[in-house]
Amino acid sequence: MEKVTGIGGVFIRAKDPQALALWYQQHLGIQLEPGTSYGGFIAKAGDETVWSAFAADTTYFGAKNQQSMLNYRVTDLDAMLKQLKAADVWVDEQIEDGDYGKFGWAMDPEGNRFELWQPKN
Protein backbone atom coordinates (compact mmCIF):
# COMPACT_ATOMS: atom_id res chain seq x y z
CA MET A 1 0.00 0.00 0.00
CA GLU A 2 1.28 3.46 -0.95
CA LYS A 3 1.58 5.96 1.90
CA VAL A 4 2.26 9.66 2.29
CA THR A 5 5.87 10.29 3.38
CA GLY A 6 5.43 13.86 4.63
CA ILE A 7 3.89 17.27 4.11
CA GLY A 8 5.32 18.93 1.01
CA GLY A 9 3.50 22.21 1.32
CA VAL A 10 0.79 24.33 2.89
CA PHE A 11 -1.00 26.70 0.53
CA ILE A 12 -3.54 29.36 1.53
CA ARG A 13 -5.65 31.94 -0.29
CA ALA A 14 -4.93 35.60 0.47
CA LYS A 15 -6.30 38.97 -0.60
CA ASP A 16 -2.69 40.21 -0.68
CA PRO A 17 -0.34 37.17 -0.93
CA GLN A 18 2.86 39.20 -0.57
CA ALA A 19 1.66 41.09 2.51
CA LEU A 20 0.45 37.88 4.12
CA ALA A 21 3.74 36.14 3.37
CA LEU A 22 5.59 39.05 4.97
CA TRP A 23 3.32 38.83 8.04
CA TYR A 24 4.15 35.13 8.44
CA GLN A 25 7.84 35.95 8.04
CA GLN A 26 7.69 38.70 10.66
CA HIS A 27 5.53 36.92 13.22
CA LEU A 28 6.32 33.22 12.73
CA GLY A 29 9.80 33.39 11.24
CA ILE A 30 8.99 31.61 7.99
CA GLN A 31 11.92 32.55 5.78
CA LEU A 32 10.91 33.92 2.39
CA GLU A 33 12.94 32.98 -0.65
CA PRO A 34 14.12 36.03 -2.65
CA GLY A 35 11.77 37.12 -5.42
CA THR A 36 8.88 34.89 -4.36
CA SER A 37 5.79 35.24 -2.23
CA TYR A 38 6.33 31.95 -0.43
CA GLY A 39 8.52 30.77 2.35
CA GLY A 40 10.17 27.43 2.74
CA PHE A 41 11.66 25.68 5.71
CA ILE A 42 13.33 22.34 6.25
CA ALA A 43 10.97 19.89 7.93
CA LYS A 44 13.63 17.19 8.38
CA ALA A 45 16.95 16.36 6.73
CA GLY A 46 16.52 16.14 2.97
CA ASP A 47 12.84 17.10 2.94
CA GLU A 48 11.47 20.57 2.26
CA THR A 49 8.08 21.89 3.24
CA VAL A 50 6.88 24.97 1.36
CA TRP A 51 4.46 27.55 2.71
CA SER A 52 2.82 29.69 0.03
CA ALA A 53 0.16 32.38 -0.18
CA PHE A 54 -1.90 32.36 -3.38
CA ALA A 55 -4.14 35.09 -4.80
CA ALA A 56 -7.71 34.94 -3.47
CA ASP A 57 -9.04 34.20 -6.96
CA THR A 58 -6.72 31.25 -7.66
CA THR A 59 -8.26 28.23 -9.33
CA TYR A 60 -5.37 26.02 -8.21
CA PHE A 61 -7.29 24.79 -5.13
CA GLY A 62 -10.41 23.89 -7.08
CA ALA A 63 -13.56 25.24 -5.40
CA LYS A 64 -13.54 28.95 -4.47
CA ASN A 65 -14.67 28.16 -0.91
CA GLN A 66 -11.59 26.01 -0.23
CA GLN A 67 -9.28 28.39 1.63
CA SER A 68 -6.23 26.12 1.82
CA MET A 69 -4.69 23.05 0.24
CA LEU A 70 -2.13 20.58 1.53
CA ASN A 71 0.60 19.02 -0.57
CA TYR A 72 1.66 15.51 0.47
CA ARG A 73 4.98 13.92 -0.52
CA VAL A 74 4.80 10.39 -1.96
CA THR A 75 7.44 8.03 -3.33
CA ASP A 76 5.39 6.73 -6.30
CA LEU A 77 2.77 9.16 -7.60
CA ASP A 78 1.42 6.84 -10.29
CA ALA A 79 0.90 3.99 -7.80
CA MET A 80 -0.78 6.33 -5.30
CA LEU A 81 -3.18 7.72 -7.91
CA LYS A 82 -3.99 4.21 -9.10
CA GLN A 83 -4.66 3.14 -5.52
CA LEU A 84 -6.98 6.11 -4.94
CA LYS A 85 -8.89 5.48 -8.18
CA ALA A 86 -9.36 1.82 -7.20
CA ALA A 87 -10.96 3.06 -3.96
CA ASP A 88 -13.38 5.28 -5.96
CA VAL A 89 -11.66 8.49 -4.86
CA TRP A 90 -11.96 11.44 -7.27
CA VAL A 91 -8.59 11.90 -8.98
CA ASP A 92 -7.75 14.70 -11.41
CA GLU A 93 -6.66 13.22 -14.74
CA GLN A 94 -3.97 15.90 -15.11
CA ILE A 95 -0.44 15.07 -13.96
CA GLU A 96 2.37 17.61 -14.11
CA ASP A 97 6.00 16.59 -14.50
CA GLY A 98 8.37 19.50 -13.98
CA ASP A 99 11.60 20.73 -12.45
CA TYR A 100 10.55 19.80 -8.89
CA GLY A 101 9.02 16.41 -9.68
CA LYS A 102 5.60 14.99 -10.52
CA PHE A 103 2.31 16.42 -9.21
CA GLY A 104 -1.20 15.00 -9.11
CA TRP A 105 -4.45 15.97 -7.37
CA ALA A 106 -7.33 14.21 -5.68
CA MET A 107 -10.23 15.08 -3.39
CA ASP A 108 -11.24 13.81 0.04
CA PRO A 109 -14.85 12.80 0.85
CA GLU A 110 -15.67 16.34 2.03
CA GLY A 111 -14.58 17.92 -1.25
CA ASN A 112 -11.15 19.18 -0.17
CA ARG A 113 -8.71 19.10 -3.05
CA PHE A 114 -5.19 18.02 -2.12
CA GLU A 115 -1.95 17.74 -4.04
CA LEU A 116 0.38 14.75 -4.23
CA TRP A 117 4.05 15.33 -5.01
CA GLN A 118 6.74 12.88 -6.02
CA PRO A 119 9.98 14.88 -5.71
CA LYS A 120 12.75 14.38 -8.24
CA ASN A 121 15.51 12.16 -6.91
From TrEMBL:
Per its UniProt record, what PROSITE patterns does this chain match?
A: VOC
Q: Which CDD domains match?
A: VOC
The residue ranges of the VOC domain are 6-119
Question: InterPro entries per the record?
Answer: Anthracycline_SecMetBiosynth (IPR052164), Glyas_Bleomycin-R_OHBP_Dase (IPR029068), Glyoxalase_6 (IPR041581), VOC_core (IPR037523)
Query: Where does the chain cross the membrane?
Result: none
One Pfam short name: Glyoxalase_6
Q: Which PANTHER family match?
A: GLYOXALASE, GLYOXALASE-RELATED
What protein is this chain from? VOC family protein
Lineage, highest ranks first: Bacteria, Pseudomonadati, Pseudomonadota, Gammaproteobacteria, Chromatiales
